[in-house]
Design goal:
By secondary structure, this protein is of the alpha/beta class. It has helices at about 20-30, 40-50, 85-90, 100-110, 125-140, 170-175, 195-200, 200-215, 225-235, 285-300, 305-310, 340-350, 385-395, 405-420, 440-460, and strands spanning about 10-15, 35-40, 70, 95, 115-120, 145, 165-170, 185, 215-220, 240-245, 255, 260-265, 270-275, 320-325, 330-335, 355-360, 360, 375-385, 400, 425-430, 435. The strands form four sheets. The protein has a nine-stranded mixed beta sheet, with helices on both faces. Strands 14-15-20-16-18-19 form a six-stranded mixed beta sheet, with helices on both faces. It has a four-stranded parallel beta sheet with strand order 2-1-3-4.
């Protein structure tokens, strides 16, 4: 844990007592702050009390005595309207910040020379964060990996000489971190998402841009217009920018041209890696992730050979294009983390013969943008709240069937894929939906997919299932 010494002897309000909120409360307490913690959920308040966190009523607190309000990233800062705790902080001139900001202040106070690699983007940031952490780890750099993935940032080891942090940052976290200043900042892509929390696409894109604008070196994926504009703006200001791409030719930067990863300098191309045998990095989107990781790890001091070895041994990220096994020629892929159409598009582009499991709680726009990929879809097996809407969208483009739950959809998809003459057929869970109609999280949905596959594989090995 990182004790937050920068608030030692000061009174701090904290709102939001989920996992990262509890970690933040303990980090503040360990650093010597006086904490008044609150949550709208009585169960969370009680759990926090049991964990030794001082819980109080922030509505009744003397706000003039507070040095800051530390807000959990899941609590609305601006849209659809500021949370009541934020309104009270604003009315009393109290700054509102989050755990990433606390980390940045501790880093500045303890060891500003420690390396901070911060990653954001609408899609791919978790895979890229895990990939960078893996590559650094295989090179014996002992990176501290966390933030919006895995461990809360304040649960990592304190900054010290030689420390390297690899931190995934959501737009919510960036919005609460005015002092975020990465050594290496990565912006992968920007597509519409979380607009209910940021109001407009312009606001959302501007928040994402902050991360690279404040970095010593900016690594920007330029395959979408928003990010290409960011790269141009930063370069005009004299900022150090490295462009990456998986879609368009570059004259300078790092490019993925399947299956090769190449460095380009003034138009000269040097192939640095062949990713054709790396199943965990299938698809152009993962090629972009690999390009981002390559640039970040080179900037962190690794050799090309060290980076390539790390890329080739990457096991993949749970629930993100996760190859969980095969039954004969049928590959099962868990992409439960694809909670919107843009993320599912990346999965659909990665395989040629797909038996697609999709559905859940639909997001704005549905899956109309995925219709052009119907030629890859041998069948769509739809479940959850969105199943009928998805069926209507896909009607006439590919075979569809609807099911009450995911397990039944998987069984039907496997039965059909087993008879497919293709060399490899893929049963792909890439829901393009939130999970909250039938599951508590995308992780729970992915775990259920894994369990259903394991049971199916066992029945096949015992000869009790359909061939």
């Amino acid at each position: 844990m990182i004790p937050v010494s920068t608030f030692q002897g000061k009174r701090v309000g904290l709102f939001g007592l989920g996992g990262s909120g509890l970690t933040t409360a303990h980090a503040l307490l360990e650093g010597g702050a006086e904490v008044i913690a609150d949550d709208d959920n009585p169960d969370r308040r009680e759990s926090a009390k049991q964990a030794g966190v001082p819980v109080g009523a922030l509505r009744d607190t003397d706000w003039s005595a507070l040095a800051a309000l530390v807000l959990a990233p899941g609590v609305p800062l601006t849209h659809p309207e500021p949370h009541w705790s934020v309104r009270l902080a604003q009315a009393n001139g109290v700054e509102t910040i989050g755990d990433i900001e606390l980390f940045c202040r501790e880093r500045a106070a303890r060891c500003p020379d420690s390396t901070l690699i911060a990653i954001t983007g609408t899609n791919g940031k978790s895979t890229t964060t895990a990939l960078i952490g893996h590559v650094l780890g295989t090179a014996d750099r002992d990176p501290q990996v966390g933030g919006n993935i895995g461990r809360a940032v304040l649960d990592l080891a304190p900054p010290a000489p030689g420390s390297t942090y690899v931190i995934e940052c959501s737009s919510y976290q960036i919005d609460l971190a005015p002092g975020l200043n990465p050594s290496i900042g990565l912006l992968l892509n920007i597509t519409p998402d979380h607009l209910d929390r940021h109001g407009t696409m312009e606001n959302y894109a501007a928040i994402k841009e902050r991360l690279v604008a404040a970095s010593d070196m900016a690594v920007v994926g330029v395959d979408d217009g928003h990010c290409a504009s960011v790269a141009d703006r930063l370069e005009r200001r004299g900022h150090k920018v490295v462009r990456i791409s998986a879609e368009m030719p570059l004259s300078k930067g790092v490019q993925f041209d399947p299956p090769h990863l190449s460095e380009l300098t003034d138009g000269a191309r040097t192939i640095v890696a062949d990713l054709s045998d790396v199943g965990s990095l299938r698809g152009r989107h993962n090629g972009q992730n690999a390009a981002a990781a390559f640039v970040a790890c080179r900037a962190a001091g690794l050799s090309v050979a060290q980076i390539v070895a790390g890329l080739k041994s990457f096991p993949g990220l749970a629930h993100r294009m996760e190859e969980i096994g095969k039954i004969r020629h049928v590959l099962f892929v868990n992409d439960s983390k694809a909670t919107n159409a843009e993320a599912a598009e990346r999965a659909l582009l990665s395989f040629d013969r797909i038996y697609w499991l999709a559905g859940g709680r639909m997001k704005d726009g549905g899956i109309t943008t995925l219709v052009p990929y119907a030629e890859r879809i041998a069948g769509a097996y739809l479940f959850g709240e969105a199943k009928e809407t998805f069926r209507k969208t896909l009607d006439g483009y590919c075979p569809t069937a609807v099911f009450d739950g995911m397990d039944a959809a998987l069984a039907a998809a496997h039965a059909d894929a087993s008879g497919d003459p293709a060399r490899e057929a893929v049963v792909l869970l890439s829901p393009a939906c939130a999970s909250f109609d039938q599951f508590t999280s995308f992780e729970a949905r992915g775990d259920a997919f894994r369990k259903a596959f394991a049971e199916l594989a066992e029945s096949q090995s015992n000869g009790s299932g359909p061939l």
